[in-house]
Structure formats: C-alpha cells, structure tokens
Specification:
about 20% strand, three-stranded mixed sheet, about 25% helix, alpha+beta, globular
C-alpha cells in the first residue's frame, strides 16, 4: 500500500454511517480504491442497503474529503451493488464496536 492510499483510507475512516455510528471503511462499504497518475482517485463503494436514506450524502462526503488530500485533483465515487453488502464485510473493529462478538 502506498503512502497516498494510506492517507485516503485514513480520510475515509473519518466518515461515519449516520445510522450505525461506525466508519464506512470498517463497515466494509469501500470495495476498491484506485489511484491513477497519483492525482486521480477512483473509489467503488456500496451502502448497507439500496434504500439507504444517506445514498447521496455519504458518497458526496467521500469525494469532498478525499479531494482535500494534497496532490489529489479528481475523485470519482461509484456506487456499486455487486456484491451486496453484508456483515461479513465488516472489520473486526466494526464488529467489536457493534457488540457482534
């Protein structure tokens, strides 16, 4: 993992699902992060459900915050639904926070 990818992940970890109060990275909502030419970032992410009331807010916040990282000039956030999100995609940190152990 590059230093830039690490910064992106750290930034994404500051974004929380308002309904669950766990950051979206540990929830497993971020499927991929690709850095092109070290200035453009493509992020594929999902939501906990297709009917999520924050379907516009969360991807917009991801784009806004990642754009604030030095040297990043463009961010594309794509919502994907395949594979569907499930609790098995959550990190152990998220499961501990939600008392799932």
């Amino acid at each position: 993992m590059t230093q830039k990818e690490s910064k992106i992940i750290d930034t994404i970890k500051t974004i929380y699902d308002p309904e669950i109060s766990v950051n979206i990275y540990d929830l497993g909502l971020i499927y991929s992060i690709q850095v092109e030419d070290s200035k453009k970032v493509n992020i594929n992410m999902t939501l906990t459900s297709a009917g999520c009331p924050f379907a516009q807010q969360i991807p917009a916040e991801v784009r806004e915050k990642v754009l604030q990282i030095d040297e990043i000039e463009d961010v594309s956030v794509n919502l994907v639904w395949d594979p569907p999100w499930g609790t098995d995609q959550m990190t152990e940190v998220a499961k501990l926070e939600l008392g799932m152990f």
